[in-house]
């Protein structure tokens, strides 16, 4: 199949973004495609809204896995595309449509050009939350086909098409969601002394939270606290009895994650005392860091430099993004790399339009890498993951 077929697949998937564990139409679309492929060497299993596809090799010594995520984000799309999302309030703004099209392109390539090793394609739901990687990895379905190594990519708006970036070791941060509910006493806008205004309390808290990164974390370490959503109040002349902050915490070390959480808890206690209100904190879902297995990543980087003159490899710095692919890497050697898609809008932006030329780049690069990897001796050190 030509790469334009996978561009069309990406566009089809772009139109039907769905929330984590709600990827019902996406799963159906993928299964329909998979069922149309020659079936001789394919086995397919579903797990919740995810899919596992095993392709048997010609003389397997190991199983090499490729993972894609599947879910969209709850946001309104503002691209110029004629194939915009038809699911109002949802958008593929993190490239998972591109990731899935690339995974199908790879799978199709290996159906047509078998290699010696077995391949496992992991279509994983709920990367944006609540996290599909950990429960999928712990499932019986995955255990039965557990791979020896696992790889993934993520689109990178800031790099041109033809460039990829990665590094051995830590690539993405530890994450924790953050939800804080504030409960006070509402009332008439003209009688503030008879109320505990949760809009004012929430505003103080959002501002105070910023001091944690500035004043409680070693400046040579890194941490992020982002409050991405505030909900509070019902009308402009009613003092709000409730407010809710929704955010996320990012750190490179688990010690810093604990430190940030304990400072948040102290500040929230202060808000309770200062505003005579009650607060509840919920940390939602948390992901472990993406730690690229060092020797496999270094060998991949050397291989790209020597064998792929068409691809420009950058050794990048770690980023504060999160990815539940980190759970796979905590047990199975592998790595993730950034794929350049050249767009001025960042991930999670309502106007992001990744350059679809990157789909062919990724299929070509990863298919050559897996073909080469399957010719290499099996010397994957399971103890080398963190
Ligand atoms: C690649 C990417 O953008 N991943 C998300 C993961 C979100 C995890 C969780 N829902 C959270 O917000 O903490 C990211 O925001 O980095």
Automatic annotation (TrEMBL):
What does the sequence similarity comment in the record state about its family? Answer: Belongs to the peptidase M20A family. N-acetyldiaminopimelate deacetylase subfamily.
A GO biological process held by the record: lysine biosynthetic process via diaminopimelate
Q: Which cofactor does it need?
A: Mn(2+)
PANTHER family named in the record: N-ACETYLDIAMINOPIMELATE DEACETYLASE, PEPTIDASE M20 FAMILY MEMBER
- Signal peptide: which range, if any? none
Pathway connected to this protein = Amino-acid biosynthesis; L-lysine biosynthesis via DAP pathway; LL-2,6-diaminopimelate from (S)-tetrahydrodipicolinate (acetylase route): step 3/3
Instruction: Give the enzyme's main class according to its UniProt record, as a single word.
Output: hydrolase
Tell me the superkingdom of the source.
Bacteria
What molecular function does GO assign, one term?
N-acetyldiaminopimelate deacetylase activity
The UniProt keywords, alphabetically, are: Amino-acid biosynthesis, Diaminopimelate biosynthesis, Hydrolase, Lysine biosynthesis, Manganese, Metal-binding
The note on the cofactor says: The Mn(2+) ion enhances activity.
Protein name from the UniProt record: N-acetyldiaminopimelate deacetylase
């Amino acid at each position: 199949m030509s790469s334009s077929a996978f561009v069309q697949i990406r566009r089809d998937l772009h139109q039907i973004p769905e929330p984590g564990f709600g990827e019902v139409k996406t799963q159906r679309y993928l299964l329909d495609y998979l069922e149309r492929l020659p079936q001789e060497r394919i086995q397919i299993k579903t797990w919740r809204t995810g899919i596992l596809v095993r392709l048997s090799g010609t003389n397997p010594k190991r199983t090499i896995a490729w993972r894609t995520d599947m879910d969209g984000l709850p946001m309104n799309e503002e691209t110029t595309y004629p194939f915009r999302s038809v699911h109002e309030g949802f958008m593929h703004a993190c490239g998972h449509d591109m990731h899935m099209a690339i995974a199908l392109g790879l799978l199709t390539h290996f159906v047509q050009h078998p290699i010696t090793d077995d391949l496992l394609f992991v279509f994983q739901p709920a990367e944006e939350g609540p996290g599909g990687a950990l429960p999928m990895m712990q499932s019986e379905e995955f255990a039965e086909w557990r791979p020896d190594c696992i790889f993934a990519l993520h689109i990178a708006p800031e790099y041109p098409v033809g460039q990829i970036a990665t590094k051995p070791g830590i690539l993405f941060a530890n994450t924790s969601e953050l939800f804080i509910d504030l409960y006070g006493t509402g009332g008439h806008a003209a009688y503030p002394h008879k109320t505990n205004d949760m809009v004012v309390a929430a505003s103080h808290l959002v501002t105070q939270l910023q001091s944690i990164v500035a004043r409680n974390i070693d400046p040579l370490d890194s941490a992020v606290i982002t409050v991405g959503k505030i909900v509070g109040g019902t009308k402009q002349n009613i003092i709000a009895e409730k407010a809710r902050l929704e955010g996320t915490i990012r750190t490179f070390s688990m010690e810093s994650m604990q430190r940030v959480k304990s400072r948040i808890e102290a500040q929230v206690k202060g808000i309770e005392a200062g505003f005579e209100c009650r607060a509840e904190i919920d940390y939602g879902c948390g992901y472990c860091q993406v730690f690229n297995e060092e020797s496999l990543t270094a060998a991949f980087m050397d291989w790209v430099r020597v064998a792929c003159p068409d691809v420009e490899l950058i050794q990048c710095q770690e980023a504060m993004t999160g990815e539940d692919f980190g759970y796979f890497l905590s047990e199975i050697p592998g790595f993730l790399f950034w794929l350049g898609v050249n767009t001025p809008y960042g991930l999670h932006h309502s106007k992001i339009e990744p350059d679809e030329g990157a789909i062919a780049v990724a299929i070509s690069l990863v298919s050559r890498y897996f073909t080469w990897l399957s010719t290499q001796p099996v010397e994957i050190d399971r103890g080398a993951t963190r």
